[in-house]
Amino acid sequence: AGREGGGGFQPRLERGFDVDWGGGAAIDDTTLVLASGRNKLYRIGVKESPKPHLARLVEVDLSEAIVSPVAVLGTVVYAVDAAHTLSAFELPKLTQGQQWPLGGRCVWGPQRVGDSVMVATDDDRLCCVDAEQKMLWKIALPYGPLAGVPMADGEGYVLAAAGGVVDRKSVV
After folding, report:
1. Is the distance from CB of 34 to CB of 41 less than 8 angstroms?
2. What is the value of pTM for the model shown?
3. CB 1 within 8 A of CB 29
4. Model confidence over 61-81: pLDDT tens digits?
């Protein structure tokens, strides 16, 4: 979300603390959302004046640190925190939305997959939410952790397990 020659974004720093940026996600061509790895979530965008530069548009303090990448789906940002909770944040103000305890540690995702966002946990579960902050389903991964991004296939998904098994899950 930067332009060549534009200035960078720098959050307020405290002595003895490093910023541990999590994976960011683009909202559009000039705006992105980032988690600081501590207890902050930012919406950052390009401001044109006095010269093009990245600027903090929204900063939100969180009760738990984000420990996953963030994923954007429509007007919702999804992320997993240190309490193993999948949270939704509504754009543009990053207002707290729905939350779902995962029951395990996030090991993959949140990742946008077509018209949904998926998260896999260390107890071999895969959950799927939509742009309206609805939990669509939560399924077992009987062959273990994912080897990559699930592929939409009609009314289900093709899942590749790290152990070499390819499986098709019908979720409708």
Report:
1. yes
2. 0.85
3. yes
4. 999 999 999 999 999 999 999
